[in-house]
Amino acid sequence: MSTLNVDKVDPSTGTALEIGSSGDTITIPSGATIVNSGTATGFGAALTGSTNNTIVTVTGANAIQGESTLTYDGTNLDMGDSKKIRLGDGNDLEIYHNGSHSFIADNGGGSLIIDTNNGSEVDINSGGNAEFMGRFIKDGAVKLYHNGSEKLETTSTGADVTGGLGVGTAKDLGVGIHVRTSDTGGDVHSGADQLVLEANTDMGMTMLASTSGECFINFGDSGDNDIGQMSYHHSSNHMAFKTNASEAMRIDSNGDVGIGTTDPTDPLHVVESASHEIARFHCTNTGNGATLFKIKCDNTTGGDYVSFNIDKAGYSQLNIEGDGDVKNTNNSYGAISDERIKKDITDANSQWEDIKALKVKNYKLKADDTAPTQLGVIAQDLETAGMNGLVKESKPDEGNARIHSDFGTIEAGTEDNGATPIKDDDGNITGYEDVFTEGQKVKAVKYSVLYMKAIKALQESMERIEQLEAKVTALENA
After folding, report:
1. C-beta separation of 58 from 45 below 8 A
2. Residues 178 and 219 in one domain
3. Whether residues 59 and 2 fall in one domain
4. How many other C-beta atoms are found inside a 10 Å radius of the C-beta of residue 165?
5. Model pTM above 0.90
6. How do residues 154-195 score in pLDDT, each as one tens digit?
7. Looking at the structure, do residues 456 and 357 belong to the same domain, yes or no?
8. Structure confidence by residue, pLDDT tens digits, 95-127
9. Running DSSP on this structure, what letter comes out for residue 80?
């Protein structure tokens, strides 16, 4: 290899000066200047014929040509689109622009680390530092921005979110967290919009605990952080509801509901120590025609059972039995009869002819073939005898319609005829209840009024007997 020292080279216009050959070193003395007089063309250093060229810094707007075109003007080093700066033996890091987007590509096996060991923070800005997009502060917060406004900041205890958080999709409901898997088109109440869960299908939330743990939803205020509470206790599998910091209701593992007791023994067990009503049923519909309170039992075997029981200190006082019998301990049945609540009081008319017109009959009930023969009157007979005031008509029910078609019709329930669905424990529809359409009214007899008519007739009989006795006595003494 040889060395060539050149003091001055002035090639003729249009000619090329080649110095050295492959492998030669060209040395320009320190302080020397390569000058383009402005009349020569193609001035500069061209590196060709090599797949891996050494990059030489050249003063002036001159190009060094190799695998990619680099232009350095003393301030900027420029590369064309899709030309990459590659670092690492395996091209582990690449920096380039593909004509549309800019990339920092980490192709290596390690991590991509942005290290600001001596700086205070790393910032991601837009618009020539016009606004922040993200800030990463050393020994401090990470801050994320939207349109120049801070939306999330990490803290030593967690993270603060400004303007709400959308999970699954962008937040568009509420002021807090909106978790949405699909849009229902619904809205939320302004008083309950801190957490919104939305799906246009089934929606649910799950709380998991250990088999001996407890799950809580607390309702608190400045005076008590759990003054209200719903809780599930996995060890005993019961759910409790607390109001005013005390348990008000419990559902045990059998599904029994206890109100005022933590140990319910029946499907509904209510305990009250205060001296006031335990239960109240109030219908405010002034035109109501529905049954307000109904007890139903599907016992069809004819066995005895009690539909309603009143117990006083462990002793039954009143039973309403399944066959309709009413029994109490003192055989006292009455009506409020204070004179002060009555008006237009007069002596009753004679009941003699009405009682004579009564047709007392024996009969059996169609609904129960095992029931004994009964003694009583027929409502239609009373109407025929002109005693319509003893007959009262009421709404029929399905049981009446099953006995006689006059009382209505019953058809199998379907999805299309408005039937009430029957659901299993998981809420799945397993069938539909029958649909009952009312027919004619059911006639009942006011037996308590009939008894009073009989008493009046008995009084009349007594008067007649006394009159006859007086006549007989007079004849005997004559």
Report:
1. yes
2. no
3. yes
4. 16
5. no
6. 988 888 888 777 777 777 888 888 888 899 999 999 999 889
7. yes
8. 999 999 999 999 888 888 888 877 788 888 887
9. -
